[in-house]
Amino acid sequence: MLQIRDLHVHYGVIPAIKGISLDVEAGEIVALIGANGAGKTTALHTISGLIGSSSGRILFLDKDITRVQAHEIVRMGISQVPEGRGIFPNLTVLENLFLGAYLRKDKAEMAKDASWAYDLFPRIYERKQQMAGTLSGGELQMLAIARALMVRPKLLLLDEPSMGLAPKLVESIFQTIKRLNGEKGVTILLIEQNALMALEVSHRAYVIETGEIVSSGISSTLMENDDIKRAYLGI
Questions:
Q1: Using 50, 70 and 90 to split pLDDT, how confident is the model at 235?
Q2: CA quadruple 171, 177, 183, 184: dihedral, nearest 10
Q3: What percentage of the chain's residues is helix, strand, coil (to nearest 5)?
Q4: Strands 14-24 and 2-11: what pairing?
Q5: Strand order from edge to edge, sheet including 63-64
């Protein structure tokens, strides 16, 4: 579904991504793990068209999207849940949710998708008329994911979904990620500092350090790698 080939990204003269290549197959959850500043979020922003690349190619469903504008990438079926959630605090929960369907015209189907989002996150339904700025951190993350799903994405990009959440909520969010993949067949590229949770929920994973992919493979196999245990799993 997604192919990245020899991708380079710079901030001015400073290299942030140094020739990474990775693949995401339809129906997979693929994790990209690494420390702060390793280039994880930059990679997602480049896929989404929010940052331009210096060189390399990004293919989505065999179409080159390297120079495609961000809103067209959304229209093609890639949706991102940003780090920090990106919720509009002065809009209601319902208004935030339907911003995810901004490019859609099929109102009946949009209502069905909203209903499914409410089933996935009952607390969003309970608070749908509240101002989004009054939600807790966990509720904001639920809303951010629900909003991204209103795109009906073929590929969902998740940037640090566990950030700032209590351990119990982290477990709930990751169970939801597994449910999205298992029940709806949503393909997911997951960026996550909680490497243990990311490896437990994903099928395959890539490890990025200072803008370069240094390891990749089946997630369960990477969890047994001594170097990764020491560096990312605290074992």
A1: low
A2: 160
A3: 40, 25, 30
A4: antiparallel
A5: 14-24, 2-11, 55-60, 63-64
Domains of the chain, first to last: 2-77+153-233 (3.40.50.300), 87-152 (no CATH)
Instruction: Tell me 35's DSSP state.
Output: -
Please give the structure tokens belonging to residue 192: 């996550």
Helix 107-120 vs helix 137-149: crossing angle, to nearest 10: 150
Phi-psi region of 198 (alpha: psi -120 to 50; beta: other; left: phi over 0): alpha
CA distance 193 to 162: 8
- Angstrom distance (rounded) from CA 191 to CA 186: 16
Per-residue tokens: 193: 């500092």
Q: Report percent pLDDT > 90 for the chain.
A: 80
φ, ψ of residue 159 to 5 degrees: the values are: -110, 105
Bridge partners, 191 (sequence order): 32, 159
Phi, psi of 144 (to 5 degrees): -65, -40
pLDDT digits (tens, 9 = 90+) for 174-221: 999 999 999 889 999 999 888 999 999 999 999 999 999 999 999 999
CA distance 45 to 85: 14
Average pLDDT on 124-128 reads: 94
The pLDDT of residue 166 is 83
List, in order, residues 6 or more apart from 88 with CB less than 8 Å away: 95, 96, 99, 132
Strand duo 155-159 + 78-81: pairing: parallel
Q: Which pLDDT does position 202 carry in this prediction?
A: 97
The rounded Cα 234 to chain-centroid distance in angstroms is 24
Q: What is the mean pLDDT of residues 121-134?
A: 94
